[in-house]
Amino acid sequence: MTKGCKEFNTSFILQAPIHLDKNHPIAIEPSTLYNRTRGNTFTEQEKRKQATMATEHPSNKTDYFIDAESATETARLIDQDHFLTEAMGGLFSERSDIATMHFILDLGCGPGGWVRDVAFTYPQIEVTGIDISDAMMAYARSFAKVQGLNNAFFEVMDISKPLDFPDNSFDLVNARLIAFLTQEKWAQLLQECMRITRPGGVIRLTECEAITTSPATEMLFTKFTSAMRKVGQSFSPVRPLLGSTLVLSRFLRAAGYTNVQHVAHVVDFSVNTEAYNPFRHVTYALFAGMEPFLVGVGETTHEEMQQLLQQMQLEVLQDDFCALMYLLTAWGEKPQGT
What we know:
Helix content is about 40%, strand content about 20%.
């Protein structure tokens, strides 16, 4: 675990309000987030909200398949940031040149956990995070201010549109789990990254796939990937996969990046592993949050979703439950002289 990661105990943030000091997040009322007991993950109020949203078609304002302004989604991404960094062996496990960099950008940064970790670990680097969510950017700014991270900055920006940065602005552009883009928008984003990255700079992308022994969880993943295929955001023609890990290197080469490389990691989320509880909570929140999207594209009904979510909660508590997540990080360099 990196020095920065040790500062942030994300399970603590979700269990109780916390006093403000430079090493801990701003106080959040846990009832507005998800309940981290072995029982139901959402409050009754949140369940009613999900049921109402399930009758509505997903918003056309963004390609993201979950309400980005939801406090529950903020909580989910806080946990996800934490275990992803650990799973990947730290902030930059594949690189040894980070200390020589000056400006780093994180795309789709959510509540800003990765940005703050980098800013804490490398105080000489100016780190900027962008996300479409006003609520998450407000949270990230407050958290950074409390910690005294004067080198961490957050801006509301839609990564599916032109980025509001000058040419050659960043030494490294990072993105983790942004596989909610069509192939066309992936191409547009990578061209924008090429523009804002300095010559010799790096674009770094991380995507994942997961597999479990829970039939209900696998059915939910199947419905999710099928829905993503319907809206053009899956790259697997038949199998229940997002397929984004398959195309990262090709996308980078097509965008003009050179020296394209990749490294893989695997996370064991099975019972009695350190990552088991974070996976259980994050996965439930993920599927519950995407219910309006799945219902809107005709993949399921509210009643079926509730049945599958309840079944999943029971199955993941079984002593023989196993789960793995495969992560692939691919990166390339902007050619000198461009």
